[in-house]
Design brief:
Number of strands: 54
Structural class: mainly beta
Helix content: under 10%
Oligomer: single chain
Shape: globular
């Protein structure tokens, strides 16, 4: 156990001192107590859990390594500062956990400070659980509930960031889960960022003057005033690719005064616009934007913006104006209109009182090229649009199911109906299912590229493993799990709890091509009933990893 200096005891009476000594002696056999101050070296699983009783800091020039399976429990509202390097690299099924002893009090989060400007090597967080973080007070103390990165350098992967919050105070604030300020050397990949909240911007992730790479994350059930999933403001330039941003309580992605690339994301079922752009430049490419519900702009809302909107499927969103797309102007001494350019988009099934598919306010003009828009000249579009060439108004004849219901059927009019010249579109190499985006010089309209299939008309052909949503969900006492493989291969399907601990391995072995259906009856590997809560199903098939969320309600 770490030693405590004499001044900790000088003010104590003899009975109090005896009680404290007995407590610490008893605890020492169970835990390592960290009283605060500078830390470095290695925290081992054999001495876990580590009980933090004061502010701790990895100083510049030092490294702290934390082994897989270690628990770090904060005994009060203390912060974990990193001015040097933190290597917290867990393993699948053996996470490193950062949490509060009292979730109501919480702790002040992991705070990476000036590690890029001071020339430190990048910190690494992998297979970590960060929960119960609370950020409040004056700025920047009120920013970044779970993780706060200021002028920092870090790689964050395969982590669960959950149950964190940032609350209001003096100055701007945000980032219930993660906040980046002035940080351009940050990557956030393969994480589950769920159940975080803020009274400001960015329930899941908040970016201020930052340019991180945000790839392949699951961002759900977060809450914020703006950008419940992600908020990027004030000269940020984020690269947001391959994420699932769904079921957040508010706008999924909010962009203000920033530049962003939103590529191949699934933005679904959020309680606000799928994407809300304010005075910014955005490249919105290859996304599925579906089932979102907002006052204006269910799919995409823009104010004073000129975004490039290319090869998206914008479907089944709801709003009072512009169910699919809504554009208006901003007045800053002069009128700043929105002038979006839409190319190769599939826009259908959206509902609104005015402009079900597209609504342009005064002074705004949308340019459409090679788009398939429902009722494009029969009330589906309101305001001014310029129909350049190649536009359609035809049923898309989708033939997908499960996670990807908007995959095109073999007879879809959207097949090979995109612009014949893709050179200026900056399309990704692959679509949402891993299909080549451009085939023989042709591109389909929408977010999905359908490959030619021989003798199997109107059927999905997937080149990647798919984990379908569990059903029922929520469930009690059992739920059905289904995954689909394109060919026979070895697969694992595991259930994890909210802390990232393995509950049970449901499948481990070869699986045939096509559908495999299994039932989980809410027990762990020893047959014990699991309590009510959130659980994660993770499918690993080759180099493909797919994750789903389930809620057990006893």
């Amino acid at each position: 156990m770490k030693s405590l200096s004499n001044h900790h005891f000088n003010h104590l009476s003899a009975p109090s001192l005896l009680l404290l000594i007995l407590t610490l002696v008893t605890s020492s056999t169970l835990a390592e107590i960290i009283p605060g101050g500078e830390i470095s070296g290695t925290w081992t699983v054999s001495e876990s859990p580590y009980l933090i009783t004061g502010e701790i800091d990895v100083p510049a020039g030092s490294t702290l390594t934390i082994e897989p399976g270690v628990e770090v429990r904060f005994q009060g509202y203390h912060q974990f500062m990193v001015h040097g390097r933190l290597l917290a690299v867990g393993a699948q099924g053996d996470s490193i956990v950062f949490c509060a002893e009292d979730p109501g009090t919480g702790w002040h989060g992991l705070r990476f400070l000036d590690t890029a400007t001071n020339g430190q090597l990048a910190s690494e967080l992998s297979y970590c659980v960060v929960q119960d973080g609370r950020a409040y007070g004056n700025c920047p103390d009120n920013t970044g509930g779970g993780l706060y990165l200021s002028r920092a350098k870090a790689e964050i992967s395969n982590c669960l960031i959950t149950g964190n919050e940032s609350t209001n105070g003096a100055g701007s604030w945000g980032g219930g889960g993660i906040a980046c300020e002035y940080s351009n050397e940050v990557t956030i990949t393969g994480c589950q960022i769920v159940g975080n909240s803020t009274g400001g911007d960015g329930g899941g992730i908040y970016l201020y003057w930052s340019s991180p790479a945000i790839f392949d994350n699951f961002i759900a059930d977060n809450n914020a005033t703006r950008g419940a999933g992600i908020s990027a403001v004030m000269y940020s330039a984020a690269d947001i690719r391959g994420n699932q941003i769904s079921d957040n309580a508010g706008t999924a992605v909010y962009l203000s005064g920033s530049v962003a690339w939103l590529v191949n994301n699934r933005i679904e079922n959020n309680g606000g616009s799928g994407i809300d752009c304010f005075l910014c430049d955005a490249n919105i490419i290859g996304n599925l934007i579906a089932g979102n519900d907002a006052y204006r702009g269910g799919g995409i809302k823009m104010t004073g913006c000129d975004p490039w909107i290319t090869n998206n499927t914008i479907a089944d969103n709801t709003a009072s104006q512009g169910g699919g797309v809504y554009a208006t102007f901003h007045f800053v001494g002069v009128i700043v209109p929105s002038l979006p350019v839409l190319t190769n988009n599939l826009i259908f099934g959206n509902t609104a009182t005015s402009g079900e598919q597209i609504s342009m306010a005064n002074n705004c003009v949308a340019m459409l090229r090679y788009c398939n828009v429902q009722d494009i000249e029969a009330g589906g579009v309101s305001g001014t649009t310029t129909l350049v060439e190649g536009n359609l108004d035809l049923p898309p004849l989708c033939a997908g199911s499960g996670e990807h219901p908007y995959v095109l059927g073999q007879n879809s009019p959207c097949r090979n109906a995109g612009t014949p010249d893709c050179s200026a579109l900056d399309l990704p190499d692959e679509d949402l299912l891993g299909h080549d985006r451009i085939s023989d010089g042709c591109v389909d309209i929408g977010a999905y590229e359908l490959l030619d299939v021989v003798a199997v008309p109107d059927e999905i052909v997937s080149l990647t493993a798919v984990l379908l949503p569990s059903y029922p969900n929520p469930f009690n006492p059992r739920t059905t799990l289904t995954f689909r493989l394109p060919a026979e291969r070895y697969a694992q399907l595991d259930i994890f709890d909210l802390a990232g601990r393995l509950v049970i391995r449901v499948w481990d072995g070869p699986a045939a091509a096509g559908m495999t259906t299994l039932v989980w009856d809410g027990v762990d590997g020893r047959g014990r009933q699991m309590p009510s809560g959130t659980y994660f199903a993770r499918l690993v098939a080759g180099d493909v990893v797919r994750t789903g969320v389930m809620m057990l309600v006893r």
